[in-house]
Amino acid sequence: MKADLIIPTFRPDESFCLLLQKLREQTFVIQRMILLNTEKGLWEEALKKYPIKQALLDMGIPYTLIHVKKREFDHGGTRMLGARESDAEILIFMTQDAVFADRYTLERLLAEFDDETVAAAYARQLPKKDCDPIERFTRKFNYPPVGRKKGKADIGELGIKTFFCSDVCAAYRRDVFLEQGGFASPLIFGEDILFAAGAVNQGYQVAYAAKAKVYHSHNDGMKQQFRRNFDIAVSQAQHPEVFGQVSVESEGMKLVRQTARHLFRIKKPWLIVSLFFRCAGKYAGFLLGKRYAKLGRNLILACTGNPNYWRNIWSEE
After folding, report:
1. How is domain 3-215 classified at the CATH fold level?
2. What end-to-end distance do the CA atoms of the chain give, in Å?
3. What does pTM read for this prediction?
4. What residue spans define the domains of the chain?
5. Which of the listed residues 63, 84, 87, 253 has the most CB atoms within 10 Å of its CB?
6. Is the pLDDT of residue 250 over 80?
7. Angle at CA 297, nearest 5°, toward 293 and 300?
8. Of 123, 99, 95, 96, nearest in space to 109 by CA
């Protein structure tokens, strides 16, 4: 089985260098790496600050570097550039700040495709060392230690989680990927979940490969949570054919309740205040994002984490 690794980059740093180092140690050897870099000038600046060039040489794997303009970056469309460059059976997507947890991540991820009904598989995300207790619990909630395959029959039990998939580290069967039209574009957020939903509704399965592990986490504050959830809600509002059939809010409330209980259990109840503000940011962003069509352009730009998406959309009107 041949596989290509596709990674969008933007101001790559030491985490990206570590990813390349760990890639060299993987038991499964990829055919090629395709880098989709935003802004050539920023890539050249990164080469001066970090040993990226040496890491690429040490990796010993062919790679293709494609530069895109910042104003042209699109969550779905940019990744599709990489997909079109590949002729491999499996397309693996990662983000530049994810790091393999061991030598077997790719081997275990791709093992899921022994089942021909699996269209996509995604890895378990473990918290990094600097991860705070709230985000650490969120990782555990979203990425439990036991894997499973999810199909149409699981929608009643799992709801929105049936469609959950993450391009932090995910692989796709290329023929099914192209058959389904790949990633939607233009798209503000959630290309992975939208594809997974379409595949599930066509009778395929999405595999959560819990034994395939990467380190990936962020300690986002209220502002970042607000903007992220605004963009998530916009994506959901724009695709009612997917998100109209499942409950989204109930899963969020379940996370809040379990996180609060966890903070009391670990004897850090004062973190409830931080949890409250983060949840307030998430909920406010989500509510506004769901109603983006009623907002003025200036307010949308103040809320979004992806202003270029809107400028591109509006320029085509």
Report:
1. Spore Coat Polysaccharide Biosynthesis Protein SpsA; Chain A (3.90.550)
2. 44
3. 0.94
4. 3-215, 222-315
5. 63
6. no
7. 70
8. 123
Q: Are 38 and 8 in contact (CB under 8 A)?
A: yes
pLDDT in tens, 2-28: 999 999 999 999 999 999 999 999 999
Q: Which residues contact 129 (CB under 8 A, 6 or more apart)?
A: none
Instruction: Please report, to the nearest 10 degrees, the dihedral formed by the alpha carbons of residues 288, 139, 187, 69 taken in order.
Output: 110
**Residue 288 confidence class, pLDDT cut points 50, 70, 90:** very high
Tokens 């395959």, residue located: 149
How many angstroms separate the CA atoms of 92 and 6, rounded?
Answer: 6
Burial of 157 (0-12, 13-18, 19+ CB in 10 A): exposed
Evaluated on CA atoms 85, 86, 91, 95, the torsion sign reads negative
Query: How many C-alpha atoms does 165 have within 13 Å on its Cβ side?
Result: 32
Report the pLDDT value the prediction gives residue 252, as an integer from 0 to 100: 77
Q: How far apart are CA 34 and CA 21, in angstroms?
A: 16
Cβ-count burial of 294 within 10 angstroms (0-12 exposed, 13-18 middle, 19+ buried)? exposed
pLDDT of res. 255: 86
Q: Phi first, then psi: give them for residue 109, nearest 5 degrees.
A: -65, -45
Report whether pLDDT(249) > 70: no
Choose the weakest-confidence range: 36-40, 111-115, 133-137, 244-248. Answer: 244-248
